[in-house]
Amino acid sequence: MAAPWENEVVHSQELIRNLFLFAGVFGVLLVVRNLLLRYLRRQATSFETVPHVAFDRLRIPTFLWCLAGALDAAVRLLDLTPHQEQLAHLWIVLFLIASFTMVGSALLLGIIEVYGSRKKVPFAVAGLSRTIIQILVFSLGALSILHYLGIPVTPMLATLGVGGLAVALALQDTLANFFAGVHILIEGPISVGNQIKVEEWEGVVTDIGWRTTRLLNGSNSMIVIPNKKIVSETLTNFDMPELRVTTELAIYVDRDTDPQLVRTLALKATQDADGPLKDFAIVVLMDPGVTQTHLQMKLIFSVKSHNDAGLAKSNVNYLLNAALRANGVKFPRAN
Questions:
Q1: How wide is the angle at C-alpha 183 spanned by C-alphas 190 and 215, nearest 5°?
Q2: How much is the CA Rg of the chain, to the nearest whole Å?
Q3: Cβ–Cβ < 8 Å for 320, 265
């Protein structure tokens, strides 16, 4: 029979061996982790790249995964009962599944954000699309945990199907808005940042949610529109197919005024004013032309975006009004 001090020596040796094993495995995994992170950092040419997203999302989780791997290796050599060893492996695996799920969701969202900013995904990137992606990823993670625990999934899915039918009947209006939001994301008539108009509401899209779309109007007020309104009413997107838009300015002068003089002055005022794009054609039309009371012409020019039209027309008006007065052009008077 071994002496007590001999048992303590053996126990100490086993503890030191396990600590060395833990440190060795942890060190090897950290080396692999650092090589991976260095590679991603070298590939990250800017913040809006996939390697940078991966580097940013994986720094902390990979450290925890290395720790979990080292712990798993050390547990295999500990003098544990089968139940204790099984329980330890169970918690390590559950931790890995949960962490992989959370990191996978964040990584996928980050990659979609990158490609969404380049218009390379077949749907709009907004609050609803992010929520759907998170639900799908976390559902897969939950199913993986249930499968690992040996809990049958099929009866639960059947129960959810029956319960889902009852919920669908009770929330018809909410679901109509939800599926309208999905339709908006897939078809892509609008995106976050677009200047749009739906009926009398106009503003910049700040988010497309699971039930509503939010606009920020010119007075810095939030407009909340149900998604089904977006897909059922006439929609104007001022940013599609491109940001540049053309705008019109009506010119009213006395009916005896020389149209060529008005045209010349209008072209010069547009060229000199801030706002109109000089690289695109500036057109002055006799439309509708001479009427019974006045001469009316139409000035057409381009601006960078719909939001620039008002200021550009105001700038042209100031210069044109001064030029017409300086050249003695009379304006029509109300009868």
A1: 35
A2: 34
A3: yes
Domain with residues 146-240, CATH architecture:
Roll (2.30)
Q: How much is the pTM?
A: 0.60
Contact of 109 with 130, CB cutoff 8 Å: yes
Pairing state between β 295-303 and 245-253: antiparallel
Residue ranges of domains in the chain: 13-121, 146-240, 245-326
Could you tell me which residues are beta bridge partners of residue 204?
195, 216
> Is there a cis peptide before residue 288, judged by omega within 30 degrees of 0?
yes
* 73/61 Cα distance (integer angstroms): 18
Amino acid found at 296: Q
- Of 127-136, 180-189, 264-273, give the range with the top mean pLDDT: 264-273
171-191 confidence digits (pLDDT tens): 567 778 888 888 888 777 888
Class at the top of the CATH hierarchy for domain 245-326? alpha beta
Structure tokens at 250: 């009506």
- Which amino acid would we find at residue 241? P
pLDDT in tens, 81-94: 777 778 888 888 88
- Taking Cα atoms as reference points, which of 238, 210, 243 lies closest to residue 224? 210
CA–CA dist 96, 62 (Å, integer): 10
Sheet holding 245-253, edge to edge: 245-253, 295-303, 283-290
